[in-house]
């Protein structure tokens, strides 16, 4: 079993495209990794929400996982691959592929059509996937605003840790900080996925973060975290307000759709990294 002791910032990377989004732009990946490393970002999440994982076919997702793994291994960056959000046989294939690549961790969405309604059913679904990558640290992707899977995370975690041998934690993308805080426990890794509550999450004890704005302005997240850890609460609040203003401006300029707007902001800041547009239906 691989160990996983990640703390800090992990970027949920955008999928780079060329040819009007018809083809992944593999050539953009290493410069992307180099840019993130220059900002001291320690990891990447591949094929997540920001990476349009659910708009990619299985072959593309595997190709991208391979390319990110090569570049990140070269530059000593942690790689987590999101394998869910597809028909069950494809999720199994993606889990097996991630295991063969020996990535640092996998992240998995719930079943999106036959949605699990209880913690027990969610654990059963994930248990059936995790057995196909048994040596890779396994995480659940909790993002109820997209999945509409609203099971109680503290209860789910208690069950999952008993049932899934390689289970290590969750990516918690929700504004419910009370529930998120209740998930924190020694030995678990709980990634915060909600940019706008970073200040409060650090105060609650979060120390691992996967947020879209890490791609665009990681320095602001670092400042919030550092100010909070130093007890400079007012400075941290001011930086959180700055981050929330940046987000509001990005969404306004990008038409309000999160992924397309954020990718547009990234293109505008990092002109040398060709990531292209977002795929339909995001760009419609």
UniProtKB/TrEMBL annotation:
Identification of the protein by name: N-acetylneuraminate lyase
Pathway noted in the entry: Amino-sugar metabolism; N-acetylneuraminate degradation
Chemical reaction(s) catalysed: aceneuramate = aldehydo-N-acetyl-D-mannosamine + pyruvate
Entry EC no(s): 4.1.3.3
Quaternary structure note: Homotetramer.
Family statement drawn from the similarity comment of this UniProt entry: Belongs to the DapA family. NanA subfamily.
Keyword Lyase among UniProt keywords: yes
Gene Ontology molecular-function annotations: N-acetylneuraminate lyase activity
Source organism: Anopheles funestus
């Amino acid at each position: 079993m691989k160990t996983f002791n990640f703390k800090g910032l992990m970027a949920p990377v955008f999928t780079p495209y060329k040819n009007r989004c018809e083809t992944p732009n593999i050539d953009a990946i290493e410069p992307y990794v180099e840019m993130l490393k220059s900002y001291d970002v320690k990891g990447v999440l591949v094929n997540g929400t920001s990476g349009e994982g659910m708009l990619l076919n299985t072959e593309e997702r595997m190709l991208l996982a391979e390319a990110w793994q090569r570049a990140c291994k070269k530059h000593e960056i942690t790689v987590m691959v999101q394998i869910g959000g597809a028909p069950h046989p494809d999720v199994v294939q993606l889990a097996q592929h991630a295991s063969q690549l020996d990535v640092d961790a996998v992240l998995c969405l719930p079943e999106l059509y036959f949605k699990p309604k209880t913690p027990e059913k969610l654990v059963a679904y994930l248990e059936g996937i995790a057995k196909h990558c048994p040596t890779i640290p396994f995480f659940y992707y909790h993002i109820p605003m997209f999945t509409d899977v609203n099971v109680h995370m503290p209860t789910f975690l208690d069950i999952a840790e008993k049932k899934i041998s390689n289970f290590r934690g969750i990516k918690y993308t929700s504004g419910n900080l009370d529930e998120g805080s209740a998930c924190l426990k020694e030995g678990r890794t709980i990634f915060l996925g909600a940019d706008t509550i970073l200040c409060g999450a650090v105060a609650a004890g979060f120390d691992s973060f996967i947020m879209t704005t890490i791609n665009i302005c990681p320095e602001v997240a670092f400042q919030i975290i550092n100010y909070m850890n130093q007890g400079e609460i007012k400075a941290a609040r001011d930086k959180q307000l700055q981050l929330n203003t940046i987000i509001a401006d990005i969404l306004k300029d990008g038409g309000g759709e999160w992924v397309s707007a954020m990718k547009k902001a990234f293109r505008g800041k990092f002109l040398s990294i060709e990531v292209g547009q977002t795929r339909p239906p995001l760009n419609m």
